[in-house]
Every structure is written in structure tokens, then in C-alpha cells.
Amino acid sequence: MSNISSPGDLADFPASFKGAVFRPGDDGYAAAKRLWNARRSDQMPALIARAADPDDVVVAVGYAAEHDLTIAVRSGGHGVDCAAMADGALVVDLSGMKGTEVDPETGRATIEAGVLLGEMDAATQEHGLVVPAGTVSDTGAAGLALGGGIGHLTRSFGATVDNLLSIEAVTVDGRKLTVSADSEPDLFWGMRGAGHNLVIATSLTFQAHPVGPAVMSGVIVYPAAEAVKFLAGIDAAMTRAPRELSIPLVMLPAPPLPGLPQELIGTPILLALVIYTGPPAGYEEAMGEVGALAEPVANLVKPSSWLEANSLVDPFEPTGRRYHSAGGYLPRLDAEVAKLALERLEAAPPPTGPATGCMITFPMLGGAIFDRDEDSTAFSRVGAEWLFEAIAMWDEESADDAYAAWAADTLAAMWPRMSLSGYVNLTADRGPEWLRQVYGGAEKWERIVALKRKWDPENRLAHNKNVLRAAEED
Fold first, then answer.
1. Alpha-carbon distance 269 to 230, whole Å?
2. Which residues contact 119 (CB under 8 A, 6 or more apart)?
3. In whole angstroms, what separates CA 302 from the centre of its chain?
4. pLDDT for the residue 1
5. Residue 257 pLDDT
6. Which one, of 164, 127, 173, lies nearest residue 142 by Cα?
7. How many distinct helices (H) and strands (E) make up the chain?
8. What confidence tens digit (pLDDT) does each residue in 25-67 have?
9. What is the model's pLDDT at position 6?
10. For position 270, what pLDDT does the model report?
11. What's the distance, Cα to Cα, between the start and end of the chain in Å?
12. Residue of 123, 108, 106 whose CA lies nearest to 163
């Protein structure tokens, strides 16, 4: 399959394509290829085709087939690997497809593939509903869902794919099809976890759930010594807590938060991000055992809207910095995990800008994620009590090696405690051996490979955590 070496090679892109088209050198090309992660900003797609509708996607994939081009797909452009704007690829850019439709009677929500999580939340909250999804507002909902999808509501309603009802898609040979439990059920199984590899989703229909708009949310801050106590007891406490309570954890050098003592600024701390979606009167009881685990220096939890609660993480991952991350599932937390995380934060490179340079996060999973069988989707849930993610963010290209090495070394230190299964979205690509294990057992992997060979035999959808490359290196 070829890459294009000059803009003139693509001068014959079909005039029937209704959306905007950007080639290197065009006005708007640099802005069109800009992603959340600036680390690969030098990548040069051969052409960016911003689709207006599914018919445009058909035109673009047909052109790619005629010219033997690989295809990259952009939804929100929030992937850490920057695969949405790959060198030499024809980019099918779905970011302009923003349609949303919510049926308040059935709770079904349909979104086009360019809708971001914050936009989906805003649309569903007009009806008091939420699709269980991610935690960063400018993430593409489609890209998140195709890899599995986790967030603050995972304990209550499972992964995003557990709430996915159907997908409208375009195949790499230009066919439109509906993918669901009743139509192409085997493909539907694969799209729920390995979907980036198979076909191009143009819209997705989810089962939304009543949540909010009034919830409790905010941050509780613990110094290092109390963080060890908190992690030592959180697993036992959460076994008795309602599923409406979720407490993802962030460990990082302390930013200047309201109410935080000056002497703690810059030292490693624990932030417990509390989201409670049950009856407001039940919050204190829900938090009772958790609240007794350790002594905080600040408690900023208060009544809020769901939209406020689900944007708590936004300030920690701003657009335009250089990012690298590594992680996977942790079956349990304890004092030793806390001590290890604190040690790794002490070893982090110094920040290169005003925001935090490195952090370690532990998104809380468990609960309803285990209500589905492991084999129900390509997405794996073995060991998914917690997610662990080492996140490095910096500003200067000269610091790339130091920050990427910190994330890799932190992963290596945590690895003996981790599950082989994992969540493909929230980690950089760790290579073929990792990918062959991350979906669960050997039979699941073989099923995913078979789907890839059926639906994309030439590996035209090559810019992702790629199943065919991993299978061929087995």
C-alpha cells in the first residue's frame, strides 16, 4: 500500500465529495491536522477529507482503494498515539459530523461520529439522561466507544460498549451497513473493543440512563502519608459502597488548589475525585466508610450538575501539550501500590511548563463492568477493578525522551501487579505481544484476527493498534 509524496498526486480527489478537503500547503491544512497531543505535530497526512455525511465516507474510502492508500480515521483526535493524522495517509475526518438525536421515551441516544463527549452529555442531559462514557470533554465519543469506553459511570452501568445498541458503518470497500446484535452480530461483537481495526463507524446508538442533573462531585486532597492509608483501605470500603459512588484517583505533584497549604505545593499528593449520582440525601452514608480511611487537607466536594462532575478531569489534560501514557488494569490497590506511585512521582522529570509534568491515575472500575461475561465483547474486563495510567505531559521536543522514559519505567515498576488484559484506548501502543494479550484469552484474539481478515483484509485501516500487524508477527 502506498503513501503519497506530493500534493499533486491527489489532485483528482472526487468533486462529488461535499465536505472540506485539505492537502499539504493548503490554507487550513495545519489547523485541520492539529490534535490533542502535540507530540506528533510534524506528521503530514497526504489528504484530509472532512466528511459531511456517510456518503462522503463512501467516496473517500473508494478513492483510497483506487489509489491503494492507507486510511486514518479522526473522530475527536484524542488518541495518545496521534494515529488520526498519520504520515502519508488519507484521513477520513469525521469531526464535522455532529448530529445528535435523543428519544426521551426509550432513552436511546444516537450520535454521529464527530460528536465529542461533552457535546453528547449536553444533548442527553436535556432529557435527564447520560450515556456511560469517558471523562474528558473533548474526547471523540465514537473513538472512545470502539475501544471499550470507561468513566465515572462504569460502576453503575458498565463500559460504554455494554450500552451500545447499534452502529451505522462504512466498510473499506465502500458499503454502508447496520451493525448490531441482529445485523452482522459477529462484527458487532468485534466493534465493541476492537472497532478501530474493522470498519468506519459513522453513527452510534446507545442506551442512555437517568442520571442527574443534580449530583455530588469534587476533589478531596490527601498528603502523601494519608494517601498510603487511603489506598490501603479503599478496596474493602468500596465493596460496601453503592455503585452510584465512583472515586477515581490522581497522584501528582500538588498544584495550587483552593485551600491547599502552601507547603504542600509541588509535593506528591493524592486527589480523590468523588462522583456520587445517587439520591443527594444518601451521599454522607455512601461516603461514610471511605471518608474514615484517611485525613484530608481539603474537601471540595459539593452539589453540582452532571456536566460539572464529568468535566472534573478536563484541566488535567489540556489540548496542545506533548503526551505519552502507559497503563492497564490493576486488580487491586493497596499501600504498596501507593508507595510505588509516590516513588515514581519523586523520580519524574521537572515540569517544562506551568501545568503538572507527570501524574499517575487510578480510574475506578469494577461494579457493573463485571455484569457482562468476558466473552460478550471484544473489549476485555479481566482484572478491571481499577485502571492504572502513567501520564507524562511536557512542552519541548527536547524533553521527549526523558518523559517517555519516565512513563515506560513507571509501567515496568507497576507491571508485576497488573492484569495481562487491558483497555486499548488509555495507553500508547506497546507492541504486538501486548496487543495479542490485551483483549483477553487466545480464542478471543483469534476471533478478532479473523474479523480483521474478513472486513479489512488489505489492512487499509492501518493506523491504530493494529491487529493484522500483531497477528503476522506472532
1. 12
2. 98, 100, 141
3. 26
4. 66
5. 77
6. 164
7. 14, 20
8. 999 999 999 999 999 999 999 999 999 999 999 999 999 999 9
9. 45
10. 97
11. 21
12. 108
Give the separation between CA 342 and CA 269, rounded to whole angstroms: 8
Q: Which position has the grid cell 460528536?
A: 115
Q: What is the predicted pLDDT for the residue at 350?
A: 84
Query: What beta strand segments (E) does 224-280 contain?
Result: 245-246, 249-253, 268-276
Q: Detail the DSSP E strand segments found in 153-284.
A: 164-170, 176-180, 200-207, 209-210, 214-223, 245-246, 249-253, 268-276
Pairing of strands 90-93, 47-50: parallel
Phi-psi region of 129 (alpha: psi -120 to 50; beta: other; left: phi over 0): beta
**Residue 12 exposed, middle or buried by CB count within 10 Å (0-12, 13-18, 19+):** exposed
Report the side by side order of strands in the sheet with 100-103: 100-103, 108-112, 200-207, 164-170, 176-180
Residue with cell 517517555: 404
How much is the pLDDT for 7?
A: 43
Q: What is the model's pLDDT at position 5?
A: 43
Which H or E element spans position 48?
A: strand 47-50
> What's the rounded Cα separation, in Å, for the pair 364 and 352?
29
Q: What is the DSSP letter of 355?
A: S
Nearest to 105 by CA among 250, 207, 255, 3: 207
- Burial per residue of 330-366, b for 16 or more beta-carbon CB atoms within 10 angstroms, e otherwise: beebbeebbebbbebbeebeebbeeebbbbbbbbbbb
For 121, the grid coordinates are 452529555
- Does residue 172 contact residue 455 with C-beta atoms inside 8 Å? yes
Rounded Cα gap, residues 97 and 100, in angstroms: 9
pTM for the complete prediction?
A: 0.95
C-alpha cell at 454: 474478513
Q: Give the residues of the chain that fall short of pLDDT 70.
A: 1-9, 354-356, 474
* Cβ–Cβ under 8 Å, residues 133 and 156: no
- Residue 351 has what pLDDT? 81
Q: How far apart are CA 232 and CA 237, in angstroms?
A: 10
